[in-house]
Amino acid sequence: MVDDLHQPNSLMVRKLESIFPLTDEEKHALQQVPVVIKTLKADQEIVSIGDRPQHCCQILEGFTCVYKLSYAGRRQIMALHVPGDMPDLQSLHLEIMDFSIASISPCTVGFIQHDDMRHVCERFPRLTAAFWRETLVDASIYREWLLNIGQRDAYTRIAHLLCELLLRLKAVGLVEDMTFTLPTTQEELADAVGISPVHVSRTLQTLRADGVIQTEKSRVTVPDWQRLVEAGEFDPLYLHQQGRNGP
Amino acid sequence: MVDDLHQPNSLMVRKLESIFPLTDEEKHALQQVPVVIKTLKADQEIVSIGDRPQHCCQILEGFTCVYKLSYAGRRQIMALHVPGDMPDLQSLHLEIMDFSIASISPCTVGFIQHDDMRHVCERFPRLTAAFWRETLVDASIYREWLLNIGQRDAYTRIAHLLCELLLRLKAVGLVEDMTFTLPTTQEELADAVGISPVHVSRTLQTLRADGVIQTEKSRVTVPDWQRLVEAGEFDPLYLHQQGRNGP
DNA sequence: CGCGCAGTTGACGTATGTCAAGACAGGTGG
DNA sequence: CCACCTGTCTTGACATACGTCAACTGCGCG
Questions:
Q1: Which residues, including other chains, have CB under 8 Å from residue B99's CB and lie 6 or more apart?
Q2: Same domain, yes or no, for A141 and A157?
Q3: Which domain holds residue B38?
Q4: Same domain for B54 and B72?
């Protein structure tokens, strides 16, 4: 991944190729799209609710989150995004941002002008379909999070989230020996699963005590995938990762 | 609305015209798309999780919901759909359904073959954009529901849901004198906001006692919009209803 | 070396869940 | 037209998962 960065759009090509093989023409066109790369520290806003952005972004390194605040000032994280993800494709068609995006860890992010996106998509309608599909998978993940937060207890919610992250990170080569980096604080986890930080702390402890996960600093390792799947009531269907259904 | 039914696609034309004016050609093409109309009783499945549908649908009359079950058999309703909505546009690009759709009230639903959808979209790329936009608004609603369920208390959740329904029903002409029909049981409401049916009952009672809503059978009337908005911490931005922001 | 943030722990509070009984209403059949 | 039945809503008593608060620990970083 790191060496790929010299060719900034290669991650996008890989992403779209995971949907269907691209023609050389399509690949070439994508490589031509200008990308502005920025590096960010942790906890910086990338786009803010109410903005009318003229570009969208792709995460190249690090983790970001999509969030909103309630009037009481409580934060709900609606999505975590990992390298390869494009969290604000929707801005192509919805003028005003209805959520904010912030970095969770240090990040590198690529920005692409809407106009440039539209041009490639016009020339290659299959790319439109691929980007549309990306946003549909995002929506599917939102739905699963609704089920998670609305109907499952804290223990299951966290296990479920870890299952999801493992599979998504695996898909971009960021899992080795069932171990991945989770650069979130417990407070961020709490905001993602809709429970309080101290309850996250306690729940993680029982997950560790049950041998479902092991942690060391911000590295998480899953000694027994099947156990984690059961703990999280996890069914990977909603990720729509073609061909994959386990690590 | 009822008389429109003789021209089944007119609701779709209206829906897309709320996004941008359609050319006569586009309208004409849409009118040519074959639609199969079915009528359903309440509580019937329209599409099931795991299906690989070859068509998508538009709600013409009545209410439907999108839902999933947890392993414990608890149901989370992720979305309520009202006339004009197209709940499974995603099946155009995601082969396997990751949720089920069921009628909540008696319904009439129009079914359109994927192939027919794809053909119009190919001929008129702006229609692709319009349908894509529809799915993006759905996603935005999922996000707001995440905030609602994850961070707000029962009282606020229900008030918020009522705000949303009022605006969406208003947009399709189903609100008169701040009154609309809500053909859901309290159990369905409960599954939509992630609380228990008996707590829904109690919460509705205090909403009524506070004068925020009035109910009579399944009719809900909102005597003071501003009060309901405050009770629900409601900001209509996420609905992306162009030009509108209140009833 | 010390500051500060993240995580932990315990005591305690509460919003909401559960269970079970009763009231009510709409529809059906005699 | 009445009696019944079924599904929905309501009510009360009680249980509990989770939240809150506050103090303490430990580690990383300047």
A1: A143, B49, B66, B67, B68, B78
A2: no
A3: 3-145
A4: yes
Report the residue of A19, A51, A75, A93 to disrupt the B interface, i.e. the one with the largest count of B CBs within 10 Å.
Answer: A93
How many independent structural domains does chain A possess?
A: 2
- Predicted structure pTM score: 0.96
Radius of gyration of chain A (CA): 18
Whether residues B150 and A99 touch (CB distance < 8 A) is answered with no
**E strand residue ranges, chain A:** 36-40, 45-47, 55-61, 64-69, 75-81, 100-103, 107-113, 179-181, 214-216, 219-221
Closest by CA position to A140, among listed A238, A236, A208: A238
A149/B144 CB distance under 8 A: no
Mean pLDDT, residues A145-157 taken together: 98
pLDDT tens, position by position, A99-130: 999 999 999 999 999 999 999 999 999 999 99
Site of tokens 């309440």: B42
For the stretch B152-197, pLDDT in tens is: 999 999 999 999 999 999 999 999 999 999 999 999 999 999 999 9
In chain A, count of helices (H) and strands (E)? 8, 10
Residue finishing a domain among A145, A166, A194: A145
Nucleotide nearest to A153 (CA to C1'): D17
Cβ–Cβ contact A197 with B under 8 A: no
Interface check A234 vs B, CB under 8 A: no
